[in-house]
Design goal:
Blueprint lengths: L3 H5 L1 H7 L24 H24 L4 H28 L7 H28 L10 H22 L8 H5 L2 H20 L5
Length: 203
Amino acid sequence: MQLSSFFSFAAFAACVTSVFSVPVEHTLETTSLVERTGFAAPAEACYTEVKKKCDDITAKIGADATIDVDLTAKIIADLDIIVNLIVTLGADLTAKAKPGGLAVADVKACATAVIAIINLCASVLLKIHAAVAAKVSLSIFAAVLLKLGAGVKVLIDLLIGVCLGKVGGLLAVDVLLLADVVVLLTGCLGVFVDACLKLGVAL
């Protein structure tokens, strides 16, 4: 599997990683419905579901403190559900990113939700790393993390493409208003990649 787009942002991500060195879990804030074109709605719904699964994983870790082989299988099953949610979101957003169907406020709201999703994933991966037992090989997480990375790749590539005006047909004046969003997206990507590296997976 090729994740070339991750590496296209690698140098820039390295510059901003220190700013985003710890994934922040927060309540998702959204813009008013008056400003909506519908582009952000799937991402906000996905955030809610991903947070539920991340909370489930956190609860499992909290109950046992150490992730043994049996608990690893349960956590991987939860991560697989998160993968499916993110892959579905990528397909939904790709279908909605059509010229004439986007507004700056909605793109920002969507990016906010996607950044929150990726930060949740990074945070839970760091919790897994901190709790996994020494006898559990980290390689057992490789397959699901590669799938998760591919799903994140689609989201990041799509939204950066929208913000740069390469996808979705935003005007140049709108693109200028989204420059800061590109920085935030790239920053959360760096945090996610670092979290995967903790579990032995280089994206």
